[in-house]
Amino acid sequence: MTKLQAINGFKDILPAQIHLWQRLEACATEVCRRFGMREIRTPILEKTELFVRSIGEATDVVEKEMYTFVDKGSTMRPEATASIMRAFIEHGMHVQQPVQRLYTMGAMFRHERPQKGRLRQFHQFDAEIIGPVEPQVDAELIALGQMLFDELGLDVSLELNSLGCPVCRPPFRQNLITRLEAVQDQLCADCQRRLHTNPLRVLDCKKPECRALVADAPAMMESLCPDCDTHFKAVRATLDMLGICYNLNRFMVRGLDYYTRTTFEFITNQLGAQAAVGGGGRYDGLIEDLGGPAVSGIGFAMGMERIVLLMELQQAAAADTDGTDIYLAALGPEALGHCTLLAQLLRKTGVRAAIDYSDRSLKAQMKIANRLQARYTLIVGAQEWEQKEAILRNMQSQEQKPFSLQESAEMQCEQLVDLVRA
Ligand code: HAM
User: Fold this and answer.
1) H/E stretch holding 374
2) Which of 17, 74, 125, 339 has minimal Cβ neighbours within 10 Å of its Cβ?
3) Residue nearest to atom 23 of ligand 1 (CA)
4) Residue 117 CA, closest ligand 1 atom number
5) Which residues have any ligand 1 atom within 6 Å of their CB?
6) Residue nearest atom 2 of ligand 1, based on CA coordinates
7) What is the pLDDT of residues 341-383, one digit of tens each?
8) Given CA atoms 355, 359, 363, 368 in this order, what sign does their dihedral have?
9) Average pLDDT over residues 302-321
10) Which atom of ligand 1 is nearest to the CA of 112?
């Protein structure tokens, strides 16, 4: 019979890796707490229209990558921002509290070509600050992202750009189209197609032929209106003041249409083509475009698989601490009964206790204890049970001591807890 396998681009996260994920999740939660962010969880399935209207019809995500149930008009979320904005509007969250600081973590879905660090089901840690327009908030949110990498001990770099606003972007866009039309035939097929629908994306194309053609093209950053220019300067000044290093990237465009003004990406050179470990920016018109109030926002999302890969590569990962504190090796039905109770009492106090019920030989049970990385093993064979004296083995030093079974199970439990916690 053929073995069933997971769908291409959909991956199991196995127990051996879970400590990295848990460390990342705990660290992200803790950093969010420091910044006054509150968690929100939105559904995996949303109306397709939400993503078309927010991410934009002419983006790769909407054009090619969405998992859409055509007959149901719904799509598996390819990102979290649109859903959070939908929830923000639907629940009138701005009425309760004019500034909303929200974060979420969860699975996203994009039908991309799978490779290392690029999956079809992947996970994002997403943070959004909705309400404030001040440039300091842009820097604050970037600082949150940077703090996460710092806390995880990961080395990444930050790229910064401004994409302007509805005042300065349309004339820039028109200019760019005119310039690109002159070299249209030499652009790659994707860029030729995008030239009129999403010309800014051409600036961001990774193909060498397109890169060479746009190298001296004008950049949005240098064509900002006075308001956007003032905003961008203040973002940079605040980042400088906070000691957050960045590189200006004139051609960073981002793959989603909702951005205005500040955009940024956290980049690594350790993951090949999947250089972006996180990215985000301001989206001052998005909430209004989705039928909500005229409220600004800024956010980012980080690819959790990519961060976990970096944690492995940069060996910043704490050791797997999922080992067992004490393994109870019982032989014979009476000893097994006693150890079953002891395991329950130990677990109630928070001790990680393990036991095997299949009455294996002592040798086999010691193998299990080693595999579970047990710190101690309590050996209760038939003879030990009889004499009410078990053997307590320190698995690292291999030292063995007698352990009295005269007292009640509760008292024995207390002694073992003291030992494990010492
Ligand atoms: P994004 O740049 O599309 O932005 O995705 C953010 C991050 O998610 C990327 O930098 C990357 O690390 C990760 N990512 C994206 N696609 C994949 C994939 N197929 N496999 C693995 N990781 C992936 C957004 O999604 C915006 N919603 C960010 C944002 C929040 N902007 C404002 N607020």
Assistant:
1) none
2) 17
3) 303
4) 21
5) 79-81, 110, 112, 117-119, 122, 124, 126, 128, 255-256, 276-281, 299-303, 305-306
6) 279
7) 999 999 999 999 999 999 899 999 999 999 999 999 999 999 9
8) negative
9) 82
10) 19
What pLDDT does residue 319 have?
Answer: 61
Q: Which CATH number fits domain 326-421: 3.40.50.800, 3.40.190.10, 3.10.180.10, 2.80.10.50?
A: 3.40.50.800
Residues 92-107 have a mean pLDDT of: 94
- Report the separation in Å between the CA atom of 411 and the middle of ligand 1, taken as the mean of its atom positions: 53
Q: What are phi and psi of 303, to 5 degrees?
A: -85, 110
CA 168 to centroid of ligand 1, rounded, Å: 26
pLDDT tens-digit profile of 51-69?
A: 999 999 989 999 999 999 9
What CA–CA distances, in Å, run from 185 to 148, 209, 217, 321, 422?
44, 11, 16, 57, 73
- Which of 311, 278, 161 has the alpha carbon at shortest distance from 228? 161
Q: What is the pTM of this model?
A: 0.89
| pLDDT of 97 strictly over 90 | no
Measured distance CA(107)–CA(408) in Å, rounded: 48
For residue 214, the model assigns a pLDDT of 86
Sheet of 74-76, strands arranged across: 45-47, 74-76, 67-69
- In this prediction, residues 74-98 reach a mean pLDDT of 96
CA-CA distance, 219 to 210, in Å (whole number)?
15
Q: To which residue do tokens 């290392």 refer?
A: 116
**What residues does each domain of the chain span?**
15-166+224-314, 169-213, 326-421
pLDDT greater than 60 at residue 112: yes
Which CATH class for the 15-166+224-314 domain?
A: alpha beta
* CA atoms of 150 and 316, how far apart (whole Å): 10
Q: Is the dihedral of CA 328, 331, 335, 338 positive or negative?
A: positive
Tokens of 238: 């605040």
Indicate which atom in ligand 1 lies nearest the CA of residue 124: 8
Q: Which letter does DSSP use for residue 65 in this model?
A: I
Write 93-99 long-range contacts (CB < 8 A, 24+): 93/130, 94/130, 94/131, 94/292, 94/293, 94/295, 98/131, 99/129, 99/130, 99/131, 99/132
Q: Which atom of ligand 1 is nearest to the CA of 265?
A: 10
DSSP 317: P
Tell me if 304 sits within 8 A of 123, measured CB to CB.
Answer: yes
Closest by CA position to 160, among listed 78, 253, 241, 77? 253
What totals of helices (H) and strands (E) does the chain contain, helices first? Answer: 17, 16
